[in-house]
Amino acid sequence: MHSPDPNRLPTQFEEWQKQAREILEDGPYEYVAGGSGGEDTVQSNREAFKRWNILPRVFRNVEDRNLKLGLFGDMLPSPVMIAPIGVQSIIHKEGELATARAAASMGVPYIASSASTYSMEEIAEVMGDAPKWFQLYWSSEPSIAKSFVERAEHAGYTAIVVTLDTPMMAWRELDLKNVYLPFLIGEGIGNYLTDPAFRAGLRVPPEEDSMGAIMHWTRVFGHAGLTWEDLAELKTYTSLPIILKGILHPEDAKLALKYGADGIIVSNHGGRQVDGAIAALDALPAIVEATNNQVPVLMDSGIRRGADIFKALALGAKAVLIGRPCMYGLAVAGETGVRQVMNNLLADFDLTMALSGCRDLNEVNKGMILPADR
Ligand SMILES: Cc1cc2nc3c(=O)[nH]c(=O)nc-3n(C[C@H](O)[C@H](O)[C@H](O)COP(=O)(O)O)c2cc1C
Ligand SMILES: O=C(O)C(=O)c1ccccc1
Q1: Residue 269: nearest ligand to its CA?
Q2: Known binder of ligand: residue 163?
Q3: Is 216 a catalytic residue?
Q4: Is the pTM of this model over 0.90?
Q5: pLDDT digits over 117-141, tens only?
Q6: How many of the other CB atoms lie within 10 Å of CB of 2?
Q7: DSSP label at 83?
Q8: What would the pLDDT profile of 269-297 be if each residue is shown by its tens digit?
């Protein structure tokens, strides 16, 4: 049993990843770390940050800094949250419960995935009143989509994040090589096995035929037939804010406004869906412009350090989501690891703010950065 000394946990992102690599088998590690195709977009996500430089200001009294952000009715300690990530039981036996506890202990919002191993109710329970959103994989079976949204609202989630870039899994060569797909071994389907609408579609209960349930899941998980018009239907299920995740094209950002989305997450799914897709940071400015401050624009994909958060905010993101770094923390030290990864990142961001002369998030604007290749 791996029992890390909390005083000796890594500080560097690269070291977390290296230790996670040592702890996890190839299948789970490469599932988490990998991208689609030749992983060009995984790489672009990082390179995009390096193409911007910060222009720090000095002599500005940065003794007291305020990183708080009001978003969809919650007051958040910082503009940072934990991205929805499914099947966390392949990384650590406590899976989403450990990540959610770490988030709750810091007041950092946790976005629970539809594809969680633990059910949304179990996750909500360990979080108490802490801020939590639910990420919807909109099922091709409408009764399941409706049931998920209603369950989420009932369990105390305060926003619905609808992920639009994954109606099906992309071509992921590492998973194909490893013949490793977590849900085919029954991981990541906790929300489905506990769902009355899902169970109603089975001939026999999952407790009697787990393979039958898994096969049914593969049929109902995604919905490639969805269009913008379907958003109206979703809005009848709930009064919670609806945030669309996986927007990269500015025309889609305009459609999101037209069809009544309450927020947008600019994301390429961490380079796991369209290989060759634009880096999320590169897509951000045009989307911020297209939405013209009408709804909050968030972003994820490739954020690893405090300076990355600063650059995303300077380019117009209201907040950012952290994906894989939390999963490396989870692999290395469970709940403690996730908390340590997030604490490091937030400390690094706070220092970047101070040393750049910014006391408040609204001081982080386009004037604070310049393209590196000027
Ligand atoms: C292992 C793994 C599982 C994921 N599962 C989901 C998911 O269930 N729902 C979702 O919307 N996004 C999912 N994502 C995408 C993340 O929410 C996020 O967009 C991405 O990880 C951000 O990039 P980063 O890992 O570079 O920070 C997943 C990402 C990873 C690495
Ligand atoms: O692996 C992913 O990126 C993802 O989004 C997902 C989708 C379905 C089940 C688990 C994870």
Answers
A1: 1
A2: yes
A3: no
A4: yes
A5: 999 999 999 999 999 999 999 999 9
A6: 10
A7: P
A8: 999 999 999 999 999 999 999 999 999 99
